[in-house]
Specification:
2 domains; seven-stranded parallel β-sheet; 19 helices; 14 strands
Length: about 400
């Protein structure tokens, strides 16, 4: 455990150094200043003992947890909900969300921080979403006998729980009252290391994207920009994604095609990187937050909160992230019945991406030529889009209604 604690302290130190120059690191550090006083004040104003704490790593995990948070508030209007984030990507996007009573950063996982945070919050129940195993927090929750759950979790053989050095992480799994899993393979892995306290329910993200689709409202700017052209939307892109996409886009057979780029990071540096690449490829573009010239070939969306709704207008989508740590959400575009593509074999760690490949509604590519081929297939007039829509509709129907099952299992 001392090695883990040392790594945590070193991580905090590195983030502080990085915050001198990096905006995201600065958010991370500043958001945790005086957290004891700030959270104490917020909790005291709630005047309740019925507080549920939901922890999300970042943006994607929040979208996964959101259906559950809303279901809790609907079933128990008197309950209060605290949502914590580890990453600025999640906190900065949802810090003003009205669906929770308190939204904050999770303090660095030291023993003192964990003890103080739990003592201040005094949660009735705690839910971690998918991939968060902060050992000091988990052991403190176990010590205080606070019901703790992991929701929409998925486990893979390469995770540390299943390695020779993973004893302390295996021990952390026993702090949960129950692990609510996405698939049976995860259950078999847990069983192999003697962890029986799990149930397989699926992924709450299916409920979330179906909810977004059901509540869709037109976005006139996107509708006008598309016009009668074919539209590719590239979501959650990083610089390498953009390079790959543009190298394919400029060679498309269908010249009446437009592209929307939605960078994962929308800070000034990321937008400049994107527009620099567009200039190098001699592509005309507009920025979403400025006057949109509908004659341009590319629209760069430099604001948050639109991507999951914009996919409604797409004829196909590219999902970014594989170059930079992990494939992003493939369900958001697929719920609208459109084909998707993404880079590399990283998708093998994402159940939904594997499912989409097997369905034949997604294509993985290894270079710009393969991406060009995928785009040409998807945009061809003979592409069986009706069949794709039917397959995806059945897929989402078969995987929906997870949230209500989870809520029952949590005894809330």
């Amino acid at each position: 455990m001392w090695v883990y604690n040392l790594v945590i302290l070193l991580y905090g130190f590195v983030i502080k150094i990085a915050s001198i120059k990096k905006q995201k690191a600065k958010f991370w550090v500043n958001g945790r200043k005086n957290w004891r006083e700030i959270i104490s004040t917020k909790v005291s104003k709630l005047k309740t003992k019925q507080l549920v704490w939901i922890h999300c790593a970042s943006y994607g995990e929040f979208e996964q947890g959101r259906p559950l948070i809303e279901a809790i508030k609907k079933k128990h209007p008197d309950y209060k909900v605290l949502v914590s984030f580890f990453s600025p990507s999640g906190y900065e996007a949802f810090k003003d969300w009205e669906g929770a009573d308190i939204i904050c950063y999770l303090p660095l996982d030291t023993k003192r921080n964990a003890k103080d945070f739990i003592e201040i919050v005094k949660p009735k129940t705690v839910v971690f979403i998918k991939y968060e195993f902060w050992l000091n927090f988990l052991f403190q929750l176990k010590e205080k006998a606070i019901p703790t759950f992991l929701v929409s979790a998925i486990f893979k053989p390469h995770h540390p729980f299943f390695k020779w050095y993973g004893h302390i992480f295996r021990k952390s799994l026993k702090t949960f009252n129950k692990l609510l899993l996405q698939d049976n393979n995860s259950g078999e892995l847990l069983k192999s290391i003697g962890i029986p306290n799990y149930e397989v329910f699926g992924d709450t993200r299916f409920d979330r994207v179906l909810q977004i689709k059901a509540n869709f409202k037109p976005i006139p700017q996107i509708e006008t920009f598309k016009g009668n052209a074919k539209l590719i939307i590239a979501g959650s892109t990083y610089q390498k994604d953009v390079e790959l996409i543009l190298n394919a886009f400029i060679k498309l057979k269908n010249v009446n095609t437009k592209l929307i780029l939605v960078p994962h990071n929308i800070d000034d540096n990321s937008i400049v990187e994107t527009t620099t690449l567009l200039n190098e490829h001699h592509l005309s573009y507009s920025l979403y937050t400025q006057a949109i010239n509908n004659e341009t070939q590319v629209l760069v969306v430099n604001t948050m909160g639109l991507l999951s709704k914009m996919y409604y207008y797409a004829d196909c989508a590219y999902i970014g992230g594989s170059f930079d740590g992990g494939l992003h959400n493939t369900l958001e575009p697929s719920v609208y019945g459109i084909p998707v593509t993404f880079y590399g074999n990283d998708y093998e760690n994402y159940k939904e991406a594997v499912d989409l490949i097997k369905l034949g509604t997604a294509i993985s590519v290894s270079d710009s030529n393969e991406l060009l081929n995928a785009f040409n297939i998807f945009l061809d007039k003979n592409y069986p889009i009706g069949e794709v829509k039917e397959k995806l509709s059945a897929y989402f129907e078969n995987n929906s209604n997870v949230t209500s099952k989870v809520l029952t299992s949590l005894n809330l």
